[in-house]
Amino acid sequence: MLEVHEVQDSYIPVSSGEQPRANLRVVDFDWAGESGSVCYPLQRNQEIAWPAGPGERIVVRHDRDLVKGWWHKQFSLEFQASDTDMV
Predict the structure, then answer these.
(1) Could you count the other beta carbons within 10 Å of the beta carbon of residue 53?
(2) Which listed residue, of 17, 31, 50, 69, carries a Cα 20 to 30 Å from 7's Cα?
(3) 40: Cβ–Cβ under 8 A, 6 or more apart, which residues?
């Protein structure tokens, strides 16, 4: 499975149409790799609340944590995802 680990608002198109749920797609793959096999770079944007420190391994849970933080900051809404939403 391939995960994406650099979440920025410019990389996430959001559409809701007439649905009560929004549909998110991450379109940037700079830090992509198997969960636990890639590490965060030593220098990153300090304005982002990263789920792990520089040089630490990136895991799937970090993607969800980053999206949750971004979602709330952008929309002041609670982010809810099922376990299958971020695979």
Answers:
(1) 10
(2) 17
(3) 5, 31, 50, 52, 53, 54, 55, 56, 58
DSSP-derived secondary structure for the chain: --B-----GGG--EE-TTSSS-EE-----TT-BSTTTSB--SS--TTS--SS-TTPBP-HHHHHHHHHHHHHHHHSS-----TTT--
Cα 27 to Cα 87: distance, rounded to the nearest angstrom: 14
Q: What is the pTM of this model?
A: 0.58
pLDDT of residue 57: 94
